Amino acid sequence: MARNIFGTDGIRGTANTGFITPVNATKIAMAVINYYLDKSHISANKRFTVVIGKDTRLSGYMLESALTAGFISAGADVILLGPIPTPGVAFITRSLRADLGVVISASHNPYHDNGIKFFNSEGFKISPTDEEAISKIFLSEVLLESDVIGKAKRLDDAAGRYIEFAKSSFPKNLTLNGMKLVVDAANGAAYKIAPKIFWELGADVTTIGNEPNGQNINQNCGATFTDTLRKKVVETKSDIGIALDGDADRLIMVDETGEVIDGDFLIAAIATAWKESNRHKSNSVVATIMSNSGLADYLKSIGFVLDTCSVGDKYVIEKMLQNGSSIGGEKSGHIIPIDYSSTGDGCISAIQILSYLKQTGKKASDIRKLYTPHPQIFINIKKIFNDDEIRVVKSIETILGNEGRVIVRKSGTEPLTRIMLESKNAAKLSQAKDLLNKIIS
Q1: CA–CA separation, 316 vs 322, rounded Å?
Q2: Backbone dihedral angles phi then psi of residue 114, each to the nearest 5 degrees
Q3: Please, what is the end-to-end C-alpha distance for the chain in angstroms?
Q4: Confidence class of residue 440 from pLDDT cuts 50, 70 and 90?
Q5: Does 61 map to a domain?
Q6: Is residue 405 part of a domain?
Q7: 122 CB contacts (<8 Å, ≥6 apart)?
Q8: Residue 107 known to be catalytic
Q9: In this predicted model, which residue has the larger pLDDT, 292 or 403?
């Protein structure tokens, strides 16, 4: 196949139509195994092993069966985890010494979408080189003799393993006793797991978004819709709210007043906490080009450099590994505490924030006082802009001069063009917005 079937975060689309169908899922699985077996160091007496987890989407059953059939037919063994956060799959892939981890999820997208993400044996997203190679052999069909096909089995204690792993990132001399939390699990993969983690650490936990029916994942809940959580935190007089997305690799928080704490502030708080405890390997913190410039100014003031990269947690992780960074992430809530997790991890990131609050005696609202963000405007256009259209929008940057910037990018997860305007100068930002509205109207 000539085109790359992968986007920013795995393969994604509307389930059971277009590309995300059982037939294609089976062929993708076969292509993946054919590719890795061809380049693998796997010894003759060891089976290639694949771990599969999923979120709570109705189409997950369909894709889980199709992928399993494809992997088995290509000679791999499969271990099924059931509903589990994406970082849990990465962790169990490493823990079981498996060769590949697979997550069936479309993350923050609505239920009718689904996707497939792949992790290597070390729990990191597979490389762009691997993605391109798999795309090229997608249409190949290599079937094996019946005596060498693989088999599948279910790992019954997958959730418990991840719960214990996540809790291990919390200081042993602390508990969350006396802290009231509201956890919004987005009716997704962590609907049972996340409340148990925080309750077992001692918190008084109220849970919402924990009644999945296959169609309500991310629906008016979770990290992309915090209104319900904000109201619940205030109503229950809780200390903080935790919002995950469908596969729990994102984290957005809500302070005790009901105000949202986005990924940039969470990165700042963890960087601050870890600096005070000398846990940083380098002075580099990584975020994407969409992060607020106020974050860069704050990190500089406490001795860090903010290194930026393209949007996508795999690009954040790539730069973190290059720079030896301990913490990185995205404004949207993908936070990567790389000493613990090889991918965005909502639960472990939340644990780091709660630990910071307990150790310092600060309120959640104090996190939003760490720095003053520069004004930003975000617009999503339901159209993929061509290069000429992108250049026209980028020309608005002349209005902002050295005080601001314009970012235009094609979404890697949805059929959208995302535009961000940012400026220290509110008047110039307003002018830029007016011009943008004329251009796109």
Answers
A1: 10
A2: -155, 170
A3: 37
A4: confident
A5: yes
A6: yes
A7: 94, 342
A8: yes
A9: 292
Closest-CA residue to 303 (of 289, 287, 323, 282): 282
Beta carbons of 409 and 418 less than 8 angstroms apart: yes
* Residue 55 to residue 25: CA distance in whole angstroms: 16
Least-confidence region, from 79-83, 316-320, 397-401: 397-401
Q: Which of 156, 178, 208 is where one domain is finished?
A: 156
The verdict on 430 and 338 lying in the same domain is: no
Nearest to 304 by CA among 334, 332, 325: 325
Residue 137 sits at φ, ψ, to 5 deg, of: -100, 10
C-alpha 369/C-alpha 361 separation (Å) is 15
Q: Which of 107, 135, 326, 349 is catalytic?
A: 107
Confidence of residue 39 (pLDDT cuts 50, 70, 90): low
Q: Is the CB of residue 204 less than 8 Å from the CB of residue 180?
A: yes
| Enclosing H/E stretch for 162 | helix 158-167
Say how far residue 344 (Cα) sits from the centre of its chain: 5
Task: Determine the Cα–Cα distance for residues 264 and 420; give it in Å rounded to an integer.
Answer: 15
Q: What is the CATH number of the domain that holds 339?
A: 3.40.120.10
CA-to-CA dists, residue 134 to 59, 76, 137, 342, 377, angstroms: 23, 16, 5, 22, 38
The order of strands in the sheet holding 77-83 is: 11-14, 113-119, 100-104, 49-54, 77-83, 152-154
User: CA 114, 120, 123: angle at the middle one, nearest 5?
Assistant: 85
259, part of any domain? yes
pLDDT at 1 over 80: no
3-state secondary structure (DSSP) of residue 306:
strand
- Which one of 369, 394, 409 terminates a domain? 369
Q: Give the span between the Cα atoms of 252 and 271, in whole angstroms.
A: 16
Q: Is the pLDDT of residue 162 over 80?
A: yes
Query: Is 1 contained in some domain?
Result: no
269 lies in which domain range?
162-369
Q: What does the DSSP 8-state code read for residue 105?
A: -
